Amino acid sequence: xxxxxxxLARKIAPTAYGKLEALNTASLRGNRIESAEAAExxxxxxxxxxxxxxxxxxxxxxxxxxxxxxxxxxxxNPLRGANDKPAE
Length: 88
Hints:
mainly alpha
């Protein structure tokens, strides 16, 4: 049935049918290119996800260091009164 429709379309509108065939072929080639690009994009996304994970770990370490430094500064503060107790 499809082949009959193709033959009819070739006879009735050969120019339009030829353009549709060319467009279909280009679309198929485009899909192959897009699938290759999709693989590259997936790899790049994976790499960026790893980088984000590393940055989050670094941010946690920095926050922990800030906490340690500020706790130490509070404990060693010479302006603190003798009756003040360190926060625990």
